[in-house]
Design brief:
Helices cover 26% and strands 26% of the residues. By secondary structure, the chain is of the alpha+beta class.
């Protein structure tokens, strides 16, 4: 059996009972239909960057989505820009780099995010004040319930914070709607979309809400992500992770008010408040590198797993870690934050065969 560790950015995960590599859309649909007809559990893997598989592995069919490529249509005057349609297995940052280089604006703040294009609408991937929901026009899917191709417009996808219809109709890594292609509506020109994130605006030397060259935004984002260990680097153990392990919690106004005055708060349109998971983690007593020194994390995972030395949101594989090692660090952090602030952190990556509980 094939170890799934080789397909994940955290380099952990047990064996797959059956592995299929689908390099075309037709191969992807065929693999899914075959698994469904056989009654096999199904797990889809793209770039493996937002996924943690148990050490026991997956007792079913794992389909590695490897369909790549994209097309550009700038002839449709009705869209007011350019339409870029990418295959689900297309490496995400390669697509972003191409769009920036060819002066198609809208994705530049999402530079450096690992993974495949088909995964980004599922999580409504976002960073530095931008989300893919801002630019996605259409997602073409295979509907396993009706066994047919179905196109979902932006409105149909019902995007939320790190959420979408695609995610809400997925059970333990097995989706109803399998992403085949993603279509983006991007601007034409070398200027970026408005830069709303204060940290990024400061790095660029502009006011929040201002614009600058998209190439400069991409360069600044890659620099900021690298300082946090969020750009894949085989030589840097801080990048052997699932990315941010916890989502920023969204609470009601009363719960947010109970926190110390200095706790960051970001009002949401529905009256709720988004908090900073990193701030909660750090102020609950978990610093960068938790698990590396003589602390509870080291006693739990033996130094094989720890919080990143650059960013407290990432749980990293320091070498020879197991999925359980990463989970043991994450559990200590989640329990500690809950004990200190009464707020439970929730995992951002998809957990297969394992949990924080």
């Amino acid at each position: 059996m094939t170890s799934l560790a080789q397909f994940t950015t955290s380099a952990v995960g047990g064996p797959a009972r059956k592995l299929v590599v689908a390099r075309t859309e037709a191969e992807l649909i065929e693999a899914i239909r075959s698994a469904d007809e056989a009654g096999e559990p199904l797990l889809l893997i793209g770039g493996g960057s937002n996924l943690l598989v148990a050490d026991s592995g997956f007792a079913g069919t794992v389909v590695k989505i490897a369909s790549t490529g994209f097309t550009v249509n700038d002839d449709d005057a009705t869209c007011g820009g350019v339409m870029v349609t990418a295959q689900a297995g297309q490496p995400w940052d390669e697509l972003v780099e191409y769009t920036v280089r060819h002066a198609y604006s809208g994705l530049e703040a999402l530079s450096g995010i690992p993974g495949s294009t088909g995964a980004v609408p599922v999580q409504n991937v976002g960073a530095y004040g931008s989300e893919v929901s801002h630019t996605i026009a259409m997602v073409r899917t295979y509907d396993r319930e009706t066994r047919s191709i179905k196109s979902l417009a932006n409105f149909d996808l019902k995007f939320g914070y790190r959420d979408s219809l695609l995610k809400r109709t997925t059970d333990a890594g097995s989706p109803r709607y399998v992403v085949l292609t993603v279509q983006f509506q991007l601007g034409l020109g070398r200027m970026s979309a408005p830069v709303r994130y204060a940290e990024l605006a400061r790095e660029l030397g502009i006011d929040a809400g201002g614009r600058t060259y998209a190439t400069d935004v991409r360069r600044a984002v890659l620099k900021l992500r690298a300082t946090k260990g969020m750009v894949l680097d085989p030589e840097d153990r801080d990048t052997y992770s699932t990315g941010s392990f916890f989502t920023n919690p969204i609470v009601d106004a009363a719960e947010a008010e109970s926190l110390p005055a200095e706790a960051p708060r970001y009002p949401m349109p529905n009256g709720s408040v988004k908090l900073s998971a990193a701030w909660l983690i750090e102020h609950a007593g978990f610093g960068k590198g938790f698990g590396l020194a003589d602390d509870a994390g080291h006693r739990a995972a033996g130094g094989r797993a720890a919080l990143s030395t650059k960013h407290t949101l990432a749980v990293t594989n320091r070498g020879e870690a197991s999925a359980e090692d990463l989970l043991s660090i994450a559990r200590l952090v989640a329990d500690g934050v809950e004990d200190r602030f009464g707020i439970r952190l929730h995992p951002e990556p998809l957990l297969i065969g394992c949990s924080l509980n």
